Amino acid sequence: MTTKVPTIVYTLTDEAPALATYSLLPIVRTFASAAGIKVTLSDISLAGRILAAFPERLSEAQRVADGLNELGELTQDPHANIIKLPNISASVPQLRACVAELQAQGFDIPDLPEEAKTDEEKSAAERYSKILGSAVNPVLRQGNSDRRAPAAVKAFVRKYPHSMGAWSKASRSHADYMNGGDFFSSEQSVTMDKDQTVRIEFVNKAGQVELKKELPLQTGEVLDGMFMSAKALEAFFEQTLQDCKETGVMWSLHVKATMMKVSHPIVFGHAVKVFYREVFEKYGELFDELGVNPNNGMNSVLEKIKTLPQSTQDEIEQAIHDCYEHRPEMAMVDSVKGITNLHVPSDVIVDASMPAMIRNSGQMWGRDGKQKDTKAVMPESTYARIYQEVINFCKTNGAFDPRTMGTVPNVGLMAMKAEEYGSHDKTFELTEDGTMRVVDANGQVLMQHDVEKGDIWRACQTKDAAIRDWVKLAVTRARHSATPAVFWLDADRAHDNELKKKVEAYLQEHDLTGLDIHIMSYNEAIRFSMERMMRGLDTISVTGNVLRDYLTDLFPIMELGTSAKMLSIVPMLAGGGMYETGAGGSAPKHVQQLMEENHLRWDSLGEFLALAVSLEELGIKEGNARAKILAKCLDKATELLLDNGKSPSRKAGELDNRGSHFYLSLYWAQQLAAQTDDADLAAHFAPLAKALAENEQQIVAELNAVQGQSAGLNGYYHVDPAAVEKVMRPSTTLNQTLAALKG
Ligand SMILES: NC(=O)C1=CN([C@@H]2O[C@H](COP(=O)(O)OP(=O)(O)OC[C@H]3O[C@@H](n4cnc5c(N)ncnc54)[C@H](OP(=O)(O)O)[C@@H]3O)[C@@H](O)[C@H]2O)C=CC1
Ligand SMILES: O=C(O)CCC(=O)C(=O)O
Ligand SMILES: [Mg+2]
Q: What DSSP character marks residue 463?
């Protein structure tokens, strides 16, 4: 028997999910306490992570705990039970904005240096590098990924389908990717036959060897090396722009500068330099003096030139304008505000942006605010090809129908920083021509590439234990769901061929009787899955880390309208569990709406689903029967909430996130009061169920009355908790009713 108080750790993140937390967490705590469960809150927000990195510069009162570090340690505890909400993976411009906000609030944290020269700047740069990009998920995801649409959600969508843009056979939209010179075409892969430390080296043309990194590897670990040619990349961008110019198809770029935080900003920067070629050719030197970095997007260029005399600014702005005249039309992030696809590297994130385009008849928005056919440029061909398959499929068969389509859950290889998403500390932008090579402990060259200045070289690691667990998880999921499972492994990829050998071997460790398990190339796998999906059949995708990310937005966005409605579980290798809420992001647009009209359209369905699994697992692992009852009743409450149409609406004045939380509490309390497994628990919740039902009209009126005017949060990245609490808990009746139960 455990003496520790059973605990669920909830996470405080950023933007919309963080706002929703202010309303939902008090409810969760009220219910969980009935089963003796403590729900603690760990701050892993961008602002919190920055403050935690500079304790010596803050006063005692300003210091915050390092929530991410603590949670990272907790992942190794078999009792770990973490509910992880989406957080900001900050691009450089977002990081700078957050730093500026904190400084303005009186926190003496350093600027993010443009170029670190002094020791102090180097120390700041080093600390910020750990906060940049996708910095939370890789620490917490100490297990593989199990994401799926729960049956109740799927049933709800079948009844109340979201809109899907129709596809025309004549659509000219397509995916465009490199046909050589990219990571795909240069990938090499080896599996370690023993524990050893390998050396990543660069040999210049004069034969001098520079040690880039020493890498300790384990037996059975798969190591890949690959590079992208800067010349080929720029030539490719130019060709895509020419093609769009000739054909009149709109141009767009889709990368993942947040998760691929080292390589993709560089790719993005090349696109900026090619699109605005004349500007960079003419003002290159001036830009260097100003410290302009195209990798941070055109917005940072526009910011930087503000220090110049007005006449020079006008000249540069004219040159930028001229580019718009002779370049093809570019997709817009916000046509009203003139924000283009190349303004900020984190505005268009491929996992969400491609499915959004596919859902929208294959179109994006142009400068005039109209929808247009689009060339979706995704330089790296490895995974881009799957999007062309989807486009082909939709052009032939029309848009998928959410009322009849099947589902494609995912089992993703993610543990121990698997594959590309763990490659940042092994990614190098080369400063001269030469050879990149990996040398083993005996001095044998394991792989090598001839590279040129500007090329991006990277190594990826995948641990054997992670692969073995992934295979087990796939077999378990196939067994539990009685659904065919497809391992997406491409015979044309060196890495996948290494994986395939392991998959075939590890499958033998399981009872496969009656299971339908396949191994297919990406194109085959996506066609197979789509053909089944169209006929209403389900197919589990068992994929590597990048496809996990891409497919768990692609299919949910088509099936459910948003990946926020997914169940996303990370069974940790150490035995604990992390329950992620949804599979998408932190919805910055929702915060904007809340600030403008005090309406939060964020749907916490992902949180409800995650909480139910978290409670259920806690119930099983800690032998807590009440936790299991809470979980069962929560699932029923969620179903009722869906059936009764109590999800947030998009329009101010109507039920929003806060109102949906009220209905969840009402239904949850009613379910608990009605259950017969535990009479004391039923009696405990009966008064709450009664009081909430009696006050329904009053509470909803109080929640809706505040809407329509702007809401003050006193911050964006680092909000004022008291101000947010006031905004997110505006119903005195609801607050008092909940508080009465605790007493
Ligand atoms: N797990 C994580 O921690 C993840 C974090 N991110 C981070 O999130 C940020 C934004 O990413 P972005 O790619 O724009 O994607 P988002 O998923 O945040 O937003 C895309 C759109 O999806 C819809 N949406 C998403 N979640 C919900 C929800 N719970 N309820 C209702 N609608 C929802 C919204 O549509 P509409 O506006 O039409 O209502 C939203 O604008 C970035 O900083 C990124 O780094 C991204 C992915 C995962
Ligand atoms: O960590 C991130 O930045 C995003 C994670 C993500 O998109 C995913 O896991 O689906
Ligand atoms: Mg994703």
A: -
Q: How far is the CA of 215 from the centre of ligand 2 (A)?
A: 25
Shared domain for 119 and 240, answered yes or no, is: no
The pTM (predicted TM-score) of the whole model is 0.96
Query: What are the backbone angles phi and psi of residue 134, rounded to the nearest 5°?
Result: -75, 95
Q: Is residue 542 included in any domain, yes or no? A: no
C-alpha–C-alpha distance, residues 128 and 433, integer Å: 30
| End residue of a domain, out of 397, 424, 459 | 397
Q: How far is CA 122 from CA 66, 90, 192, 226, 591, in A?
A: 21, 20, 35, 29, 34
Expressed as residue numbers, the domain containing 23 is 7-142+572-742
190 three-class SS: strand
Chain segment 653-684, per-residue pLDDT in tens: 999 999 999 999 999 999 999 999 999 999 99
Four-residue CA torsion sign, 385, 386, 390, 396? positive
Other Cβ atoms less than 10 A from the Cβ of 93: the count is 18
- Sheet (strand 196-204) strand order: 209-217, 196-204, 434-439, 445-451
Report how far ligand 1's centroid is from the alpha carbon of 587 (Å): 4
Ligand 2 environment, Cβ below 6 A: 89, 134, 137, 258-259, 351, 549, 552, 583
User: What mean pLDDT is predicted for residues 318-326?
Assistant: 96
Distance 467 CA to ligand 3 centre (A): 20
Q: What residue's CA is closest to ligand 2, atom 3? A: 134
199-215 tens-digit pLDDT: 999 999 999 999 999 99
CA angle (27, 32, 36) in 5-degree steps: 145
421-460 residue pLDDT tens: 999 999 999 999 999 999 999 999 999 999 999 999 999 9
ipTM comes to: 0.98
Mean pLDDT of the chain: 97
**pLDDT given for residue 508 in this prediction:** 98
Residue 562 beta carbon below 6 angstroms from any ligand 1 atom: yes
What pLDDT score does 4 carry?
A: 81
Same domain for 121 and 259, yes or no, is: no
Residue 1, pLDDT above cutoff 50: no
Using the mean position of ligand 1's atoms as its centre, give its distance from the Cα of residue 65 in Å. 27
Number of separate domains in the chain = 2
Is the CB–ligand 1 distance for residue 607 below 6 Å? Answer: no
Our mutation pick for probing the ligand 1 site, out of 590, 642, 717, counting the most ligand atoms within 8 A of Cβ, is: 590
Label the pairing between strands 81-84 and 577-581.
Answer: parallel
Joined together, the tokens standing for residue 288 give 């260097």
